[in-house]
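Q: Structure for this?
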Amino acid sequence: MLNLAVEQALNGLQLGVTLFLLAAGLTLIFGIMGVINIAHGSLYMIGAFFCAATLAATKSFLLALLAGIGGAALAGMLMEMLVMRRLYARDHLDQVLATFGLSLCVNEAFSIVFGQRPLYVDIPPWLAGSVEVVAGVPYPTYRLAIVVVGLLVALGLYLLISHTRIGMLVRAGSTHRDMVRALGVDVRLLYTLVFGLGALLAGLAGLMAGPVYTVQVGMGEQILILTFVVVVIGGLGSIRGAFLAAMIVGLVDTALRAFVPPWLKTFMEASAADALGGGLSSLGIYLLMALVLLVKPRGLLPAHG
Amino acid sequence: MILARTLFSAALAVGPLSLAHAQAPVKIGFVSTLSGPAGYLGQDIRDAFLLAMEREGGNRLGGVPVQLVVEDDGLKPGAAKQIVDRFLKTERIRVVTGVVFSHLAVSIVPDVVDTGALFLSPNAGPSNFAGKECHKNYFVYSWQNDALHESAGALANNLGYKNAFVLAANYQAGKDAVAGFKRLFKGKIVEEVYTKLDQTDFAAEMARIRAAKPDVVYQFHPGGTGIAFLKQYAQAGLNAQIPMVGAEPMLDVATLRAVGDTALGLNVGVKWNTDFDNPESRDFVAAFQKKYNRVPSYYAGQGWDTAQALAAALRVVGSDNPDKLAAELRKANFKSIRGPFRFGPNQHPVQDWYQVQPVKNADGSLSLKTVGKILAGHGDAFSKDCKL
C-alpha cells in the first residue's frame, strides 16, 4: 500500500510539473499582456513535433532538444509579432477568437506537413529503464527526469523573475503596465521576449511529453483544458500560483484516479464502483476549481495583490 | 457536349450489362472521419475504396460507372447528420458508406435506412443496430463491436490466463468492448477500470495494475490514447511482467509503427491480417502498397471488402435500385480478403478470428504475424433478437 502511494505521488508530481511548464507560459502572457492565448497548446505541439522530426532525421537527442525548444520559442515570437500585437487593445473575446483560429490553422498546417498518423519518439537510451525509488517501486527513469527538469525550470524561473532586471520589468509590467511604458522601457520588445519565453516552456513540456504520450496533431488541446484549470486555480497572471496549483491539480487528479475506485469497491458492487469512480475522478479537478473559486474568487495566489 | 461525353463514356464502358452504359454514374455517398487525430482511419477506408474503383479502369464498381462523393464528418455527429441529409435529399444518393466511429453511425443510420436508402458500414458495428433494431437496408462488413472483443476474451482463455485486469475508455464502444471481453473470458476479472476518453497519462492505472498483479491485462483505447497506453506500459516495466491481450483496434499498422519494439509480446485477436495466404488478400496488399506506398491497415481492408461487396451487387443489378441491391448484398456473393465471408441473420459478419503477434523483420521493422485461429464461424450475441 505504501509502495502504491509512493508511486502515485511521483505520478502526481510528474503530471504537476508538466502542467506547470504549460501554465507558467500561459499565466505569464496573461499577466504581462492581458492576452488569453488559446493557441498555447499549439506551441506545446510544435515543440513535440519539431523534436520528433529532428530526432527522426538526425538521431541526435541534443539537436532534437534544441529544435524542439528553439522551434517553439521562434514560433511563439512570430505569433506575437504577426498576430498578438494587433490584439492587445481588443477585448478578451476577440483575443480568444483569434487565438482559437490560430490553433486551428496550426493544427491543419501540421497535418498537411506531417500527416495525421502519430509520430514515434524514442526515449534517450541513458534515460530508458527504471530505477527503484524505494525498495519494490521501480519507477521509469524518464518520468523522474521530467520531474527533475520541471523543478529546475521552476527554480530558474523564480530566480529570473525575482532576482534579475528582466524579471523586475516582467513583474512591473504585470502590475503597473502603464508606468513601465511611461518610464521608457521598450514594451514591444519585452512583450515579444515574454511570449517567446512562454512558448519555449510550452515547447519544452511538449518535447518531454513526446516519448510518454502520443505525438499527434491536436495533442495540445487535450492538455490545454487542464492547464486553464491550473491557471484559474492559481490566480490569473501569478507564476507562484501556477506552480502551487499545478502541483495540487497533478496530485489530486492522480490520487482520485488511483484511490477512489478501489475505495468505492469496499462497499459497492465492482462495475458500479468503477463507473462512479471514473466519473468522480474526471469531475474531481473541476470540483476543486469550483471550490477554490468559491472561497478565493481570484485564485490561490492572485498576482495583482 | 453532354451527348458527346455520354457517347464517349459509353464507348469506354466494358461492363457486361448494356443497360449500364448510357446512364449517369451511380452516386455513392462516402462520409467519414478524414481530419483530426483519427483522420487516418477514414483516409485508409477511402483510399481502399478508390483503389477498388481504379482497378476496374477508373470510377467503376462491378462494371457500373460510379461517382464517390467524399465528405469529412470531422468526428462530429452533427456534421455527419447534415452531410447525410444533403446526400439523401439534395443529391438523391441511395447508397451511403464510410463511417468509422460507432457513435456517428448511431446518429445517421436511422436517417439513411428510413428513407429507403442503403447503409454499408466498413467499420462501425454498434450493438444498437445488431439486435432488435436491425434493418434490411443496413449491412456491416467489419464486425459487430462486441464480437470483436469477444475474440480477445477467447484468446485469453486459449493462452491459459485465469484472471484479468481490464481497462477501457469511458464511452459506448469502451463499454461494449469490456462487455464483449467478459462474455467469453472464463477467468476472474480482478479490476475493471474506465479511463477518460481523452486521457493520455496512464501512470495512475499502471501503478494499480502493478499492485493488482493479474495474469493478463486486456485494454481498449482508440487511436492515439492506445499508443500512449502501450508506450507507458512498457516504460513502467510492466510488459516484462504481465502479458497483454487485445483486439484489432489495439494494434493496427499505424499503432505498431508508433510504439515500435515495445509491442513485441502482445497477443491480438483479428479477423484479417496482411499475411493472409489467399489470392484476394495478396492481390489487395500488393496493389495498396504499390499505389499508396504504405502497408494497408485493417481499416483499409474493410474498405476494400465493402467496395467488393457493392461491386458484386452492382454487377448483377446494374443500377442503384435499393431493394434490388439489398437483395444481392444479402447474398454476400463476393471474394473477401478474409477468405470465406457470410452474413448472420442481422447482416453482420459471421467469420473466423485469428491470433496475431508482432514480429521483428530482418531489416528491424515490425510486422504482424498470424499464428493461429481463435474462433471459427463466430457471429455475435445480438443476432438472435433480429427478425428480418
